[in-house]
Amino acid sequence: MTGLFVGLLTLDLIYLAQSLPENNQKIVAADYTVAAGGPATNAAVAFSYLACRDALPLVSRLLGVVGSHPLTQLIREDLQKYQVEIIDLDPTTKNPPPVSSIIVTQASGERAVISINAVKTQAHSQAIPSDIFQNVDIVLIDGHQMTVGIEIAQTAKARNIPVVIDGGSWKPGFDQLLPFVDYAICSANFYPPHCHTEQEVFAYLSGLGISHIAITHGEKPIRYLTHSQGSKIGFIDVPKISAVDTLGAGDIFHGAFCHCILQENFTEALASAAKVAAFSCQFFGTRRWMETSPPRA
């Protein structure tokens, strides 16, 4: 089982606090953690962890920009711990990696994030290794390395390798990438140009030939549309939990979906991924949920 995850790598500094600071206020965090972050990164970690948990042979590859700045050692050590193989698109850059500062509110589990994402770390498609698709079973693209993502999606489609997108929000270039996508897993904030309702989003994505579409709504049911064996629209319930931290829940959902879709049908994989993501929200940070085995489907 080999997953290829394409996109953003950050260094996440995560704090747990009673509330967000007001203007000119200093607050003391109740807890903190440091981890590699980004949608594709957290998905790759979840994919790797779940495959190990289920005693499946795996390779979890993460394609993005890391570089050689001293801060990147923290990213490398974290991902090595979770058996994620980094394929660096720009290994010689000495620029610092994107750093995200995150405050999680204790009472609600909601988070506030500030980051520059991959704005200053865009790579060219020429940097993609020629053997990148060796034994790859599934590809996930988060849109933060759009030029590389388009090339990867196009080649994967030609090789009949399923392509999943993490549609957290619309990004320029998605219109070129989406025709090569098999599974569009989007948030309620994903609105292509001229789309103002979920119905219009479903119609837009279906018009591009995407056969499996889902829109997540946090703790509310997932709405899906599948064109396999005729069109079917429906909802998947999300487990009810008391959230400690919602940071990375969507990323973990995507990684779990990539793991599950290789073994289950579309709606089963959505339901299984929702269980894992909900479970992860009961722990602070993006890693502690893996210290207690999450539920199986």
List the helices and strands and how they pair.
Blueprint (H helix, E strand, L loop, with lengths): L1 E5 L3 E8 L13 E7 L1 H15 L5 E6 L7 H10 L2 E5 L10 E7 L5 E4 L23 E4 L4 H13 L4 E5 L6 H4 L5 E5 L10 H10 L4 E6 L2 E7 L5 E5 L12 H13 L4 H15 L17
Parallel strand pairs: 1-4, 1-8, 2-6, 4-5, 8-9, 9-10, 10-11
Antiparallel strand pairs: 2-3, 6-7, 11-12, 12-13
Counted up, domains total 1
**CATH class type:** Alpha Beta
What is the arithmetic mean of pLDDT?
93
Point out poorly predicted stretches. none
* Backbone CA Rg: 18 Å
Notable features of this structure?
4-stranded mixed β-sheet, 27% helix, 297 residues, UDP-N-acetylmuramoyl-L-alanine:D-glutamate ligase, globular
Structure, described:
- The radius of gyration is 18 Å and the shape is globular.
- It is 27% helix and 25% strand.
- The model has no long low-confidence stretch (mean pLDDT 93).
- Helix 4 (174-177) links the parallel strand 9 (163-167) and strand 10.
- Helix 1 packs across helix 6 and helix 6 (249-261) packs antiparallel against helix 7.
- The longest helix is centred in the first third of the chain and has 15 residues, at 39-53.
- It has one domain: 3-Layer(aba) Sandwich (UDP-N-acetylmuramoyl-L-alanine:D-glutamate ligase), CATH 3.40.1190.
- The protein is of the alpha/beta class and 297 residues long.
- It has helices at residues 39-53, 72-81, 146-158, 174-177, 198-207, 249-261, 266-280, and strands at residues 2-6, 10-17, 31-37, 59-64, 84-88, 99-105, 111-114, 138-141, 163-167, 183-187, 212-217, 220-226, 232-236.
- The strands form two sheets. The chain has a nine-stranded mixed β-sheet with strand order 5-4-1-8-9-10-11-12-13, sandwiched between helices. Strands 3-2-6-7 form a four-stranded mixed β-sheet.
- The chain is built from seven helices and 13 strands.
